[in-house]
Amino acid sequence: MKKIKFLTLIFLIGISFHTHAQLWIKVDTSFYSEMLNETKMIDVYLPPNYYEDTTQKYAVIYVLHGATGDQNQMNLPAQIYYEIHDTTSNISSPPAIVVCPDASCENFLGSYYLNSVLNGNYEDYMILDVIGFIDNNYRTKSDKNFRMITGASMGGFGAVHLTVSYPDLFRASFPFFGYLSWPDTTMNTWRTLCYEENGSYNLNYDAGINTQIFISRCGAICPNLNLPPYFVEIPFDTNGVWVDTILRKWNYYDASRKVKDLPDEHQLAWFLGCGKTDYMCTFPTYWVFMDSLDNYGISYDTAFFNGGHVFHVPTWIAGMYWMDSIINQSFLNNQIINMSNGYQFISSHIIPENPDMTIVMADVLNYNLDFVRNSQGSMLRKIGPNWVNGIGDWIVEEGYLVKMFADDLFTINGTLVDPATPIPVATGFQFISYFPETPMDALLAFETIIGDDLDFIRDSEGTMIRKIGPNWVNGIGDAMPGEGYLVKMFADDEIIYPAGAKSSGKITAVPTHFTFNGGNAADPVYTIYIAGLEIGDEVAAFDGDVIVGVMKVNSQNAFENELPVFSTLVNGKGYEESNPITLKVCSENSIVATDFTMEAMYDSYVSDVYPAEDGKYSIVNITKGSIEKMEETIFVYPNPVTGILNINSNYKVLNVKVLNYIGQIIDNINVSGMEVTINTSTYNSGIYFIQFETEKGNSTQKIIIE
Known about the structure:
Blueprint lengths: L8 H5 L11 E9 L4 E9 L13 E5 L10 H13 L9 E5 L13 E2 L3 E2 H16 L9 E6 L1 H12 L6 E5 L7 H15 L10 H13 L22 H9 L16 E7 L7 H13 L5 E5 L7 H19 L2 E6 L2 E5 L3 E3 L4 H4 L8 E5 L5 E5 L2 E4 L10 E5 L3 E9 L6 E3 L2 E5 L7 E2 H4 L8 E5 L5 E5 L2 E4 L3 E2 L5 E5 L3 E3 L29 E7 L6 E6 L2 E7 L9 E5 L1 E2 L2 E2 L8 E6 L2 E10 L17 E13 L4 E4 L6 E16 L5 E15 L6 E9 L2 E9 L1
Parallel strand pairs: 3-4, 3-7, 7-8, 8-9, 9-10, 28-36
Antiparallel strand pairs: 1-2, 2-4, 5-6, 11-18, 12-17, 13-18, 14-15, 14-17, 15-16, 19-27, 20-26, 21-25, 22-23, 22-26, 23-24, 28-31, 29-30, 29-34, 32-33, 34-35, 35-36, 37-38, 38-39, 38-40, 40-41
């Protein structure tokens, strides 16, 4: 078992609490929840000097209560956090805001923080309403590195479920004596507890507290409005036999099954605490979850105690100190730079302690990195056994082009740059950095250079800010932390990022039917603005048989439907000058033949062959023609199937995913051929969906496994 050493338990157990000074400010308040359509109470604990230093922003710890409770149940645990912070000498960061939301519901003992047709959408309430209310009304640091979550019992279950479901929202999670998985040992224990209270497997809600807890849990996991009197599905029948179709619904909320999709401990840290003799059998669920973490190489820390289903104060103290130490690390100015397979621009708002490129990027000097290039064309690359640094030092004002063979990341530690620091931009092309710590409307971010001196700004996806006629068109949407940008200038100028600018609100729809691995936005990119199609249609640009760009229509405004077309692809050459432009459309899961015309507007490009120059654009009206349905090009048999499933396709199949009836991916198979076989004998009986990715598009078909 791997562990991160954040805490010294001997010190913590000997901590001495005092109350002679104000350590927190408690705000009892309420707000309207759109997800629940009702007003909910919420307790918010603020640091003692919150109203004195109005420039300070704070991390947030969400503390979730257990069954039978409400927001008041976690008041003492919240207050313990401030005692710990005040008496710990090696924590230099300011104390966090602690939030205790109300997740009680009318029907049973608690909502379990899940969406339920019976109780209400409590998962959406937590993620959208509660977090939104706190970030909009208090001075929080809204970056995930400053958002933590914990909870006890039902709240422990809620903490782990919300964390594994939304790993991009949280930096650390401390589920405390909750249910992290549903092993047979735990499920059988609960069946026995219910039987002992009821004298049979036919459950009566008033039989006892264990039955009430179990039925409450069913109300969150498997509600059924057609089953009075409790409107829930019990996962065993009146003979005590488990019902597989209902158990599958429980398994959907088994956090151990979602570990494979989680980032490592440097992005999402875990502290696991539980009593080893809990009669409710929570302890075995931790071992299943830890086995999954071990299997995927994710480190974690633990504090298990000799005791039952109780709030064990020393373990809570350990977890709170652990969580505060992670907050402290987040305040020590670091930035994680995530890089994906292919080309992208990167930058940082941190001035590194040691600017040498080989030191800054030491974590990715491996087989995942091809090269790093600066605006002058100098490179960091591997030659033979050695990494050769032709760039020298990381310059915080500059952006960099990287090419990756696989996804990876590195962390920059150092001093936070003043976001108002001027960035000089010279005539011609260069990569530039983005300093603000939050996303910002790109038109506002780059307003100091938007004018006659600017030709265009381009991001890693090939989308651009450019002037068309009298208007500046923002295809980028928001400028993003960690992203670098390619700027082409007609004259020298400088960028100064504004303070307090807001997001553009632009959402770019992601294509799903055409397979495209991206291109190099530092090489020539040709832009096509799409008109004439319906929202949801997908467009792919081809040069011969090669896809050189894809997009999904998300507006009736052509200038919001930007299709970047690349001259250099991740896996080879893109479009070539003077080759014919071919466009294909996928509409309602069908490939549609198209005709298109170029609209002459301002300085738009109107030829039907690919241009030679970088930055050219066209406005294209597309007319849809005949349909070739993807599902008619793929043959799946036999269906129903009991063993081998055969797949024959008119086009090369690249990937096959098997999904269960609730949309979980249970198998992911990379292939390359027109004939594929799948052995279904390892799957449970039931309805499944097969998703195909082919060289011509994607398709989904339903199968029945007997």
